[in-house]
Design goal:
Chains A, B: GO terms for molecular function: arylformamidase activity. Chains A, B: Pfam families: Cyclase. Chains A, B: This is Cyclase family protein. Two copies of one chain form a homodimer. Chain A is of the alpha/beta class and 261 residues long. A seven-stranded mixed barrel of chain A has the order 5-13-12-8-6-14-15. A two-stranded antiparallel sheet of chain A has the order 3-4. In chain A, strands 7-11 form a two-stranded parallel sheet. Helices cover 16% and strands 32% of the residues of chain A. The first copy, chain A, has helices at 98-101, 111-116, 124-134, 156-160, 174-182, 209-216, and strands at 9-14, 18-24, 49-57, 60-71, 77-79, 102-109, 121-122, 142-146, 162-163, 166-167, 171-172, 188-191, 220-222, 236-242, 250-260. In chain A, strand 1 (9-14) and strand 2 form a beta hairpin. Chain A starts with 8 loop residues before the first strand and ends with a strand. At the A-B interface, strand 1, strand 2, strand 3, strand 4 and helix 1 of A face strand 1, strand 2, strand 3, strand 4 and helix 1 of B. Bound molecules: manganese (II) ion (MN) (2 copies). Residues 73, 77, 79, 195, 223, 250 of chain B line the site of one manganese (II) ion.
């Protein structure tokens, strides 16, 4: 079992930008980082594995270093449009415009609903209620969907919450996903769960509707986010930093929330 | 041969932060990304390798995704204090404070000198001359050392520039490295080359003086940076985003330069 994300908000004074709070939105990356498990016959991703090269020893007297195996979709990571068949021909992870990676973000909180029902699905009425209180979703920005699921992020079993019918984790209704992808101005959806779709999303129509509609519209996903409870409903700048894997479908990603003080 | 970094500066309007230019300082990550080669008997890092899991086919009809092998010190990457024996017991990459990862940066340009002499070593007099013109190095910030070497960043042979006497790439004199580590207020050094030390640094005293002194002082390194020519001498905010590899000695890292407009 990996350690919890450390306390991660600090005041930082930057020339020309003033004082910021930086919130670390990424989970630690370890051999126990929860990893998605698809049913047969789908191929699965290997988890994160670390291999020591030297540790101040005969293999390298002055240095300690490792190499690692990792899936593009392991741990806190970004889904590029070309990850899904509906986005085939769309942008790979190394070609995502910087204006989509450093962009405004809002947070919709459905922690109570997901605690009461692990299969809770966000609906269009939830988005409408948010907009009535906080104004429209940010044009060119991110919708971060807080469910409290990050409390399970260090434990594969609790995080996937699977039984004989598959995983039970919160997600988004198909019609809401379609509206967010095709009618709203957001360019990405970020979640605390192992993927942007619900654990039971293989039962929805279309299957995996967030992936289907968002990537089909050239939009992005971010998963396994931490510390969403540290962000206000509006006013965060998200800085997502995927590796530039050439032609890749995604990447493990460090993510910061920047808050002017 | 990998493609060049794409044009990567854009004006982005952010709530509370105003208009920023974001400069992408990371190189693409591919199977041809240049990787350090140490002489016998040192163990070397494997390069980046990409493995397809499915591509809209029988292995996964709706998705395309990969897994990969990568060294912590491959491509644009961060060196944590525990990477070096002088920093043994120091911070691993997942515990670096956010105030060091999002911090001011200045750029010293020695492109002409490195073009004339690939073994050029930055000296204390270069730093003094910079400070006389631009003011002191930033307390808690980064020194970015521009050498023009990023022009070779897509080609292993040109980038390492090795002959029978080893690699020939620019670096920093031992006494200058000591001063930057022990007497200046900076917390990290960023370079365009494969490592923070010169290609011939195994001949210096101490060997690999930038690693020795900087990590011994708990400070950081950043390598294989791109687009340093897009940054002003002062006024950049660096945002370095290593993966949170628990206990790791470094990580491939996306890096942004944020410039208020
Ligand atoms: Mn994914
Ligand atoms: Mn290194």
């Amino acid at each position: 079992m990996s350690k919890e994300p450390t306390v991660s908000t600090e005041a930082i004074d930057l020339p020309g930008l003033g004082a910021l709070t930086v919130v670390d939105l990424a989970q630690p990356l370890t051999e126990t980082t929860p990893t998605i498990q698809l049913p047969e016959p789908f191929a699965n991703t290997p988890p994160f594995r670390l291999h020591e090269i030297s540790r101040y020893d005969e293999r390298g007297p002055v240095s300690y270093w490792n190499w690692f195996e990792c899936g593009e979709h392991v741990g806190t990571h970004l889904d590029a449009p070309n990850h899904w068949v509906s986005g085939q021909g769309g942008r790979p992870v190394d070609e995502i415009p910087l204006r989509q990676l450093v962009a405004p973000a809002v947070v919709i909180d459905r922690t109570d609903e997901a605690a009461a029902d692990p299969d809770y699905l966000l609906g269009l009425e939830d988005v409408r209620a948010f907009e009535a209180e906080h104004g429209p979703l940010p044009e060119g920005g991110w919708l971060l969907y807080r469910t409290g699921w990050s409390r399970y992020a260090q434990d594969q079993e609790q995080f996937l919450n699977a039984d004989e019918s598959g995983a039970h984790t919160p997600g988004i209704q198909a019609e809401c996903a379609r509206w967010l992808a095709e009618e709203s101005g957001i360019i990405g959806i970020g979640v605390e769960t192992v993927g942007t779709d619900a654990g039971q999303a293989f039962e929805l129509d279309p299957v995996f509707p967030v992936h289907h509609y968002m990537h089909g519209a050239g939009k992005l996903g971010l998963t396994q986010l931490a510390n969403l409870d540290r962000l206000p409903a509006t006013g965060t700048t998200l800085a997502a930093a995927p590796l530039k894997i050439e032609g890749g479908s995604g990447s493990p990603t460090r993510v910061y929330g920047l808050l002017p003080r």
